[in-house]
UniProtKB/TrEMBL annotation, chains A, B, C, D:
Pfam families: GFO_IDH_MocA, GFO_IDH_MocA_C3. Residues 8-127 form the Gfo/Idh/MocA-like oxidoreductase N-terminal domain. Keywords: Oxidoreductase. InterPro entries: Gfo/Idh/MocA-like_OxRdtase_N, Gfo/Idh/MocA_oxidrdct_glycsds, GFO_IDH_MocA-like_dom, NAD(P)-bd_dom_sf. PANTHER family: BCDNA.GH03377. It comes from Actinopolyspora alba. The keyword Membrane does not apply. GO terms for molecular function: nucleotide binding; oxidoreductase activity. This is Predicted dehydrogenase.
Length: 387, 387, 387, 387
């Protein structure tokens, strides 16, 4: 391996997403044959002491407290953005303009305008060989990558129905404290943008189709929550607690979507079911190593939903891991994401999902919010030129 | 048992529903201690020979070919209507005016106007002690009756979400023939009225709440189908193949509904999930003896969705049947329905679901159709005075 | 239908099994096209008043208090024995000798000697056209009859493993009272003969093979239980609470068996899994309408256990019932049993399972008891000449 | 962190187990707060070139081709043995005598005599502060560690039944090639020692009880397999393809065990079910993030097996990982194993499972083989003095 095969990574943010990304950066080159080996060059956070402790813990070689400095570092060739959505545009655009590859956590931004600007920056940077990717990690669940492959192979025929749900319950308790994810300024929206974005992206990924229009509604069940500052006072929740919408796909199918943090007992139930003219597929992240498949071309006397354990060597990403039946976990989605990004960087390819994909999701979220604010009226989603 | 304890039943129609009702009428008095014993007096059908054969097969003592004659019979005290929806109003109203109790299959009628007229007739008849009931048989699945009891007992707290689906796949094949259920004149609507009606009724039944408004869409995937007359020509499908809508409940919760005959591989997946502030419930008719329950008041380290086998003696209707773990089947829902109807007749009570309940469902279906035809705009459901 | 097409049935016993059989006799001719129509002629019990009440409730035309009188009745052509096992030999042999067809509940008898005598009587009667059947009703679960068909069709290849369990929990509580099922004199054995007999029979039925030898153990966890007579005194439990054994099949496969009434939370979990060289099948009675099938000849990337809903028209017995996805319940196994018995009687065929099948099961149970009493030493099961 | 807080690790072997252990050594200190930080000092293999490539890939700093040299290295304080079972005794005893801590993969050895000698060596070394552990990694599945905690807390009461199965299917095809795992000289036994050992250990771990006696049988379905040398000739399979045995626990319960590589369609179905007087637990590694629990102290009308997602912060090992519902994978069991080992080394504690635990398992396996060779006669397992 030559020096040219190494890629210095600088990461901004080190909480939940930062920890997951770190585990992935540490692991990817040990498990996959990537053309490029990542080097965990520097971690950036606002407070020097906390950032230094995190860097030692997570395995980053250096520390920065100013993201502009991080971008300037000569040993950083790729910037990994793990901060809340309101900071994404500024950091991503600056990094791209500085010629650094960018991996940006989802949702790409908090508005269509911002996402659009970022996508423009990504397009300009691409002309100079600079790569960008938005972090819809669930595309890298082997069972879901397998689902996409099966759809592309025609195994379920023409898609009639998509049934997508992302169900969590972590703020069911009204005394659960206020946090940045419940603040529109920081997070853009609530369940809609945080988890609804994932099922919109997955629908596009697995079906290979676009959403053409929506009719939606949102709701905030608990409008105030205790502040975490010990003051005893309450802060206003300015985002949705739950969102639901119906939609149409450009292939002629119908879809229903639901994203909520109030589905009591559902911890991370990201579910996707597709019904086609030749078969069906179903998935639930709470059983992430399984894909259900019904083959409608079989004799009806022995047909039924089969449970594919997506752990065979032939399944996406699995050749690098363990024998059949030895499942993977949540963090592997990030390791696979890094693998695909490194592969694209190493081969001058375009990593997916692109910022344009992130923008397409943002358009859908914006349409849902528009419909929800206008008597649920049908709202068309602007056609995306390139995906 | 005196002669007064016997109740002569006359049934109109003898295909799928008629066979199911016959099995229930034969069984109910042998299994349950009903105050009134049904007597299978007469079966009514249009063709004398076929009707006679059906009557012998199904166990009816006499035959009529004119439903007006059936109503006039002195040995018929209750008329059981198992014909397509377009015939319900005329038969039901005539029977009620003749002082005969009425059990009418769902949906109550093909329009709000008809359902309204029937409900008025039922109210007038009730003043004379004549009983009426609409046949939403799924209310009598023990697991669903248990769900209602648990909701009423506060086991899941304030309801935040209802997720209702009725998924079938019996006309996925575009060469599957034309039939009356696909003809708006006979059936009123397609998946919406046939199976969507069930999940609307069940939502009202289990939650004890009304639906206040909807935003919906419908679709016909296969617009023409071969006629069953051997002519080789095609008939137009004039109803929806699938319907989806979002809704709100008067208790403040959100709901999503989906009814389709194109969910490949789903045979009779009538599913209902409720998420409340204190717990959740989930049901799928394909596993009709099971109710899933998550108790959010438990310690989180041992909490989880439990699978209640709804076969314990304490569960609704189960005392009369078999030991725990020995499940029931589809037709038992009708046996239980007849048991509750006979109990109401025998005690001068009001059987449920009433025609007013049937009308309430019809209002929801009409609102969905209105919304679907008007850019999915939010459409309020008229408030029901009595339920 | 002529008088000759009618078959008078006389039943002995009217508790749990009697109620289930009555429901089946009432239903079978209404649902299936049987050549012979059963007539519920007379019910026999020891106490006249209770028996009369049961007869009215369950639909029997007459009452007897002496089983010998029942056998003598001219309107009784078939005797259905639903009493505890210690009474089976005397009644069954007398009925057969009187030229009456016999349906005898399982286990056939409480010992090999008795079962052998009954089988001899059945062979002699057969020469005179008299039919006999032992009531292993679970053979008539559609999913299990489908499993047998698939094994016979070679869908799972050479059988390597059978994994059979019958798990119940109804006497886990040590204060649950003494009853006849816990008395060796009446019941022969405990879990072994009551429920273990079913999984031995099903193994023979589904695989088409015999068990050649066993090594077993049994245990009584609660040796004394309160008498139900209000005396406050305790009675000795003289049967096993649980039994487990390993076995070999004459086709070269291995098998494990377990029968227990102490599997807390398992209500009626009769489970059977077969692993063959070309596939596998799995079943659990708690989900009785489902059969799991793994086809090992499929491409491994889409292979997996599929859940067949055994409710298709092509599935055994299902043509007569409801549309796909509309499941059956426990009592249907008896209706199907009566259908097959009537078919055999009507066509001069040999109904299955025969008394010889019942004897074969008894030989296995005896071998398990012998092994359990002799340090679990391997115990061969005598070869059955005819099955 | 001082130099003393670092612990040099030397690993022998780098195939399947070596890769899994490497991933764990790389990860453990980044995720858990261990008192001691592992340093991946040296990897040992027979061929220099292959070992060097593996070391670079897996992240080991140096390479050895002689395990005695590895033990001598001053930068190696702990030896991790990932080779086939026949090499365990020599390496482990030498390492212990040299004062190096030892982690030895399971099974501890290929015979009781060897395991006994290793346990003696471990006891002697322990007096000098040298630690040893056998690698039964499945003890570190959070759901199984939770099961043990719940049993210890009395949540299922007195254990009546253990039902343990380890089902795989990777050599169902008779043309699947010969390998060291099928050679008695190298592997000791087949399914029995390879996977049966795990369920024996887990039974001891979760119940806290010993197995007192067994009756067993084993079988080799495919006695010859093609050699992997391209010669076209076949090698003899000298181990069992499958083993089954019944057993008793010193707490009075019964147990059934089955280990096979011929359970077609079961990829890594390590299943454990426990039925106790107060409840039941069930687990299947194919759904490794789930534990099923039935609480028999609940009201029977709402009781049922609940699915605990073992991903809550309060669950064993989970505080260090992701939010609820974000599951772990196979390799995490090794990371947790390393965490517990490092904790023991750092606190002068005794890591579990000890070599004595490994010996106890070996005694059970030997008893099964003895019984299998002697007409399945009941065979007592020697009492273990210390565990």
């Amino acid at each position: 391996m030559t020096e040219n095969d190494r890629l210095g990574v600088g990461m901004v943010g080190y909480s939940f997403m930062g920890a997951a990304h770190s585990q992935a950066w540490r692991t990817v080159g040990r498990v996959f044959d990537t053309r490029v080996q990542p080097v965990m060059a520097a971690l950036c956070g606002r407070r020097a002491d906390n950032t230094a402790a995190a860097a030692e813990r997570l395995g980053w070689a250096a520390v920065e407290t100013d993201w502009e400095k991080l971008i300037e570092r000569r040993d950083v060739a790729l910037v990994d953005i793990c901060t809340p959505g309101d900071t994404h545009p500024e950091i991503a655009i600056a990094a791209l303009e500085a010629g650094k590859h960018v991996l940006c956590e989802k949702p790409l931004a908090n508005s269509v305008a911002e996402a659009s600007a970022m996508t423009d920056a990504a397009r300009r940077a691409r002309e100079r060989g600079v790569r960008s990717m938005v972090g819809f990690n669930y595309r890298r669940v082997p069972a879901l990558a397998l689902a996409r492959r099966m759809v592309a192979d025609g195994r379920i025929g023409t898609i009639r129905h998509v049934r997508a749900q992302y169900l969590q319950d972590f703020i069911v308790d009204p005394e659960s404290p206020m946090m940045w994810r419940l603040d529109r300024e920081r997070a853009g929206s609530g369940a809609l943008g945080d988890i609804g974005a994932h099922i919109v992206d997955l629908t596009r990924f697995v079906t290979g189709q676009n959403i053409t229009g929506v009719s939606g509604m949102t709701q905030t069940f608990v409008p105030e929550r205790p502040l975490d500052d010990g003051s005893g006072s309450y802060g206003e929740v300015t985002v949705d607690d739950a969102a639901a919408f119906i939609a149409r796909l450009d292939g002629g199918g119908m879809a229903t979507f639901e994203a909520t943090r109030f589905a009591t007992g559902r911890k991370n139930a990201m579910r996707l079911e597709l019904n086609g003219s030749a078969g069906s597929l179903a998935f639930d992240f709470e059983s992430m190593n399984e894909l259900l498949f019904h083959d409608h071309t079989e004799d009806e006397s022995t047909a039924g939903f089969r449970r594919i354990l997506a752990t065979e060597p032939d399944h996406p990403y699995m050749q690098a891991w363990w024998p059949p039946g030895h499942g993977l976990g949540y963090e592997h989605t990030f390791t696979h994401q890094m693998r695909d990004l490194l592969e694209a960087v190493g081969t001058d390819g375009d990593p997916e999902p692109s910022f344009a994909d992130g923008l397409a999701v943002q358009h859908v979220l914006a349409a849902v919010e528009h419909s929800s604010s206008n008597q649920s009226v049908w709202t068309e989603v602007p056609r995306q030129n390139e995906l």
